[in-house]
Structures are given as C-alpha cells and as structure tokens.
Amino acid sequence: MTVGAQSPSHVTGVRDPRDPNADRFTHVPAEALTAQRDGVAPRYRFGAFVLSPRQRTLLRAGQTTVLIPRYFDLLLFLIERRNDAVHRRDIFDRVWADVIVSDSALSQAIRTLRRTLGDDSREPQFIRTVSRHGYQFVGAAVIEEADDGAVPLIAQTPDPAVPPPAAEPFAPLIALLTAPAGGLGATEDQRDAAERLHLLGTEQALHHLEGHPREAFGRALLADTRHLVATSGPVPLIGHAHGSSAVLALARIRLRRAAYLVAVRWLGAAAGGSAAGGAAGLAGGLLLAVAPGSDAPVTVAPVLSLIGAICGALGGAGAGAGLVAAEALALSARTTALVLGGAGGGLVAGTAAQALGEWTLGALFGIDVVVRGAIAGVMIGTGIGLAYAVATRGVVSGLAAPRGAQRLGVALITGLGGALAALVLALAGVPLVGGTVHAIAQASTGSRILLTPLGRMLGEPEFGPLTRCLMAMAEGGVFGLGLAFGLTRRR
Fold it and tell me: All domains of the chain, ordered by start, with CATH?
C-alpha cells in the first residue's frame, strides 16, 4: 500500500466538524475503520513515514527511525489529535503524566521530532507552533490503516527538506556546543548540537572534543542530552582529566534548567513534613490527655502539635532538599543518588535541630538533655530516600509526580521506609521527637507532659521499649508519608 494509491472503495474521507478548514480530510481505509471498531489501534502513514503504535516504531521509507519512548508518545498524541491545536498542559498531562519536567523539555522534544521528520519551524510541514498555546500536527493526508504488522516499503526519493550531510560534520557542531553558555547554562542551539553529535556517534564526538578549552562544558552537555537520543553512547565523566569540572558543569546545567521546579518541590516537601509532624503531635497530645492516670490537660495537644510541626518542617526541608537535588541531578544511578541525597539532607537538618535544641534548652531553661538529631536525621533520610527510590523506580528522567492511587502507593512505601528507619533508631536507643519530649519532661520540675501514661496503656510500667518503638515508628511513618505527598504534588 502506497500513499496516494488508495481506491475510493478502500478509503473513506472523514472530516472533523471542529476543523475550520472545510477542505481538509483525514483518509481512513475501510480496514482501519474495522480495526477501530474492534478496538485495535491503527497505524498512521504520512509522507514517507509510517507510525505504528502497536509496534512502537517510526519508519521512514521502510527504514526504522529510533525515538526515545516519550518522544514517540508525543508524536503519536499530536497525530491522534491532529484536528486540534493541542495545549501544552494537555501534552504534559499525557506524555509526562508520571513526572514533572521543565517547559524546556517540551520545546526540546518538539525540536527533536522536527529534526527527525525533516521539518522546519519557520515553514512547518508536520508540526506547527501555536503561539501561547501549544502545537498542532499539520501533515497533510494522514492515512490510517490496519496495523497488521506488515509495513510495505515505499520507494522514496531524496527529501529536499533534509540537507545533505556536511563533508566534516563534527567541527561546526563542536564549535556550537562549546560556545559561551547562555542564561540557562546552555542555549537551545547548543542542546540541538549535542543531540546531533550523539546521532553522528557519541564516541567520535568525544574524540573531536578532546583538548578543546571548553571540553568540560561540552562533555557535561553531551552527558545531559544523552538520554534524549536513543542511539547515544556513554559519556564518562568520573576518571576523566576534566571529570570534576564536567560534573560541576553538569550540575549547574540541570539545576538552572529545573530551578523553579526544584524550589516548588522543596517547599512542598517542607510543607508536607510540617503537616505530618503537626498531625502526629496533635494525635499524641490528645492520646496523652485521655490516657488513664495522666494529669496532662487537653491544651498539651496544640503544644505538641506545634513542636511536631516545627520539627517536621525542618526535617522535611532537609530531607526534601536532598531528594529533590538527587532527582534533578541524577539521571543514572538514581537509587544511589536518592539514598545519598536523603541521608545528606537529613544530616544537615538533624545537625541543625540538635544544635538549636541543645542551645535553647541549656541557655534558656537550664535543662541538660542530649538531643541526637544528627544520627536520627541520617537514618530517617536514608530510609525515606531508599523507599522513595523503590516506589518511583519506573522514573527515567524528570521529577516523579504520580497521581491518584499511584501517588498514595508512593507515599505509603515512603512512610514504611521512614517507619523502619525509626524502629532501628528506637532499638538503638536514639529517641525521635516524642522520646526527646519525654526526656525533657523528666529533666524538668513539675512537667505535665511525661509520656509514662502511654506506656501504661500498652502494659508497660513506664515509657518502656515497646512504647518507644511504636511511637518512633508512628513518627517516622507519618513523616515519610507527609513528605512524599508534599514532594510529589503537581503544579
């Protein structure tokens, strides 16, 4: 079957009533209509291309053109909605439904698709930019046909839209790649040059880059765009002569590009941790007030809630910062990065809480209580980071943003990681917020917030090991749950 060779008995002209162009028809073969009725997705033929959703392949003149999965999904979505100018928001909701990415990710994807199709943004044959709205597929005579697995070859003459390759293609691309960086650490033209170099051959591109004064930046940009080209090769940074400079350059490129998203996610994590800490403190205070033998008034509940909210906010800000930075920076070894990020962020937050708590208790109240926030922060951050990595292991790039039941699942798994880490701490004799509050009450004269009545509710004469473990697990679990919910909130 070739384009333009369909007989009237095999092709139906279908016009979408929303299409303002009365002369524009989508050609649908009769077998494709039957396939649609049977629930089988058709394949699409346009120009020299055949797009097969069933086989997830794009062929040009019978030759496979490789696209990364998200770019394939984007092209398919635009073709399916070809009678509409598709809003950017709808594209993000469909193609990047499970992650949050910067707006530049869509622009880069469109640029790659245009290059793959031999299209020009100034005179588009396939993808039109709709100003302040989104994009529309405008390729004429899209033919839908039954996707039976057999794609006939098309005799194809050279496409005048695709310029012939340069005699020495690497030199001009290397020059563009290593030009002084723009405001985001790399201009769109530089990123395009990096992708083209990957298409020509990653290893050869690195060879041509060796010895250049801006080799570190060039390597960083090649490493950053590697996951956008399906046929790219490895870009080693560690162990190279300019490795440390390239790693720093890569970090700057990725953080600058995602700065707004990182800030929003960080604030969300801090808010989620604060809400979780406040809720846990309120519940603990109410439980303490009604416990048999307790003389704690109901008014202790808001006090413990405030303490929990402050500690949760500090912990969420620390661990959240580590997790967000790991997600933004690491597109490979993601699990390791998240564990290290959670541990590092927890260490910073825990150390700050420990120093502030001990100074406040000693200087203002004359109470000498050891606050072991640093080790608690490292342990909780590690547990949460590992659990979050496991829960979002399907994410390849971008910031994880699951929805509905998936988001709840991620939060529950992350909470479980926090609970298990807190249990280890309790068994090792390291108290969290509740245990520290009890220690402060013991060191104070006439305090009414001793947690001994909670231990008696569980059959222990004092605030014993079982009570410490259960309270710690509740604190760590609720904190991880709240942090994950705040972290994965979509804009």
Answer: 11-145 (1.10.10.10), 170-256 (no CATH), 259-487 (no CATH)
Rounded Cα distance, 282 and 235, in Å? 51
* Residues 6 or more apart in contact with residue 180 via CB below 8 angstroms: none
Does the pTM surpass 0.70? The reply is yes
Residue 363: pLDDT band by 50, 70, 90 thresholds?
Answer: low
Is residue 168 over pLDDT 70? yes
Residue type, 79: I
C-alpha pair distances (Å), 337 with each of 234, 326, 346, 369: 19, 5, 14, 34
Instruction: State residue 155's pLDDT score.
Output: 46
- Give residues with Cβ within 8 angstroms of 395, minimum separation 6: 98, 99, 327, 334
Q: pLDDT value at position 448?
A: 67
DSSP string, 55-74: TTEEEETTEEE---HHHHHH
